[in-house]
Amino acid sequence: MSADTSLPVLTQKDFASDQEIRWCPRCGDYSILAQMKKVLPTLGIPKEDIVFVSGIGCSSRFPYYMSTYGMHSIHGRAPAIATGLKVARPELTVFVITGDGDALSIGGNHLLHALRRNVDLKIIMFNNQIYGLTKGQYSPTSPLGKKTKSTPFGSVDRPLNPLSVAIGAGATFVARSADVDIKHLTMVLERAARHKGSAFVEVYQDCNVFNSGAFEFATKKDQKQENCIYLENGKPLIYGNDRDKGIRLTGAGNPEVVNLSDVKEDDLLFHDESSDDPTPAFRLAQMRWPNSPEPMGIFRSIDRPTYDGEVDRQFKQCMEQGTADLEALFNSGDTWDVKAK
Length: 341
Hints:
- The chain has helices at residues 29-39, 78-88, 100-106, 108-116, 162-169, 182-194, 216-219, 224-227, 279-285, 307-320, 326-330; strands at residues 50-54, 69-72, 93-99, 121-127, 173-178, 199-204, 228-230, 238-239, 245-249, 255-259, 294-301.
- The longest helix has 14 residues, at 307-320.
- The chain contains 11 helices and 11 strands.
- The protein is globular and about 85 Å long.
- It is α/β, with parallel strands linked by helices.
- Helix 1 packs across helix 6 (182-194), helix 2 (78-88) packs parallel to helix 10 (307-320) and helix 3 packs across helix 4.
- Strands 2-1-3-4-6-5-11-7 form an 8-stranded mixed β-sheet, with helices on both faces. Strands 8-9-10 form a 3-stranded antiparallel β-sheet.
């Protein structure tokens, strides 16, 4: 009888480590962790082929709580370390877990280049608009005027828009969800996990200790339908508790809110996540509550060659050329001898 080589059927319990989870009670990180454990068994990937790499921050404890390979790395450098791992072992599925401070402050340069190279990484950024681990200083995404321990008179920094940064850098998958929107978050994480290329997901995450309620507009059941637009590929941008409002473009190309009683559905803006032109996705990323309804979901999902795939292709081509002579390489091209007088 031949051996059974099929993969074992995994459940979310198989991805839970034996480590005590040390986040504050009611932290939004718990929900993100739970949804990730739901998604991984659906991918059909062996646990030993999944790696979580994190930087520094509350979110970056994530690898301890997953029964997979993982690395709690250096502040802001998780994308660089994950890139090295993915290039060396392209068969692995590599997630980067980071926060708004870790990714966009000290780690901004590393994030930018991982995205522009289209490294096949799944970058999940927990955005609580605050530094939680270091006890409540303002972060790169804190709103203008935010009073914190480091900005007692209100922040004068204009916040970064994470999705605009990702789209501008050329990320091939860009999405947004919220920690307690369980069904939606699960869908977004699964789509990101299955994407081939740089996937950037911003998750609105509640820090109930230092910035509680920052995202109630997108999480409260009686508010989110009026404040958010849930993107569906190929469908018009319609929202509202009664789905009676929509978005269309003005003559100048700017989005505006209209009542469906006043316009035809065909006049509305239709979402195309697969557009190679980043302009539509960037336009959506600029729509921010409370000035406009805020889009949630998949902003962009396109196919392009990955950095790690191209490096692996070049490596295999070189190997097919046969063995190399290191001494000949050292003495090729412009060389010279340095002789003492």
